What we know:
Strand content: 25-35%
Number of helices: 6
Order of helices and strands: HEEEEEEEEEEEEHEEHEEHEHH
Radius of gyration: 22 Å
Distance between the termini: 9 Å
Amino acid sequence: xxxxxxxxxxxxxxxxxxxxxxxxxxxxxxxxxxxxxxxxxxxxxxxxxxxxxxxxxxxxxxxxxxxxxxxxxxxxxxxxxxxxxxxxxxxxxxxxxxxxxxxxxxxxxxxxxxxxxxxxxxxxxxxxxxxxxxxxxxxxxxxxxxxxxxxxxxxxxxxxxxxxxxxxxxxxxxxxxxxxxxxxxxxxxxxxxxxxxxxxxxxxxxxxxxxxxxxxxxxxxxxxxxxxxxxxxxxxxxxxxxxxxxxxxxxxxxxxxxxxxxxxxxxxxxxxxxxxxxxxxxxxxxxxxxxxxxxxxxxxxxxxxxxxxxxxxxxxxxxxxxxxxxxxxxxxxxxxxxxxxxxxxxxxxxxxxxxxxxxxxxx
Length: 363
């Protein structure tokens, strides 16, 4: 019986481990109320975009010393250039317009929201390059994210991840060249409708389309960025049709070519965040989801985990409540769990142990 109990305990442990994997292997875009998302203020408020899909930092991400390790779950990758290793930390959010009732119900799935909370290790946001003018503004403190509705998600960069030619490669920063020292500091914020504000500009472009100005030319995007102490907040709202209709000759979005995501849809999406400590080049990056940055594409590791993001129903994400529960969990928590699936595996673990105990009693 002791052996049987021991085996049962091992079974419980294995199922518990499986539960942990299930809780981290599916990444959902959080359905949000359109009117409840105050994008454009340069601040990521608690719960505004649901739970973070990931929280990655230089202590938990892979790096060049771990290229031979097997990637599990949704890890990040940290890389340093021209500077000794320093702390990097980013919290990622992805949401989708998910109103099921009310005036905006018809717009469910019409918009994607991206929000990034990035550590600025030196407390200064550098943005000396303007991507909208064709300059390489990943040399700034910047956020880059690649999205495709036409290429299958993957965790392998050995092939051509964006073979369809219908992906986007968006890079965002605050262009600060008109500032004497090239930096903006605590308290500065800027939105897409601000134009040139205090000598700075919100620079957001899509490198897939010859770096056209995403915020201006596409009529499909609005966004903001703000500096809060030693952290930068990026917020963007982009029509789903921007990604669905994406090709080399993308045209402005209008009512005739709108596209709506539905529950069960998924897309490939990866992120890279750059830190610039001075005006020479970027000094460090941290990434999530296979598919953007040069270091991971060149390394033997070759990936930072699957880049698949799934659209859930409102009920799958929030439960049966008409309004979302308060999602102000600690943003350092793991990505959103799989809800019912986690309950099932935990219940299975309890049943396994209970069966062992019953068998012992019968014997």
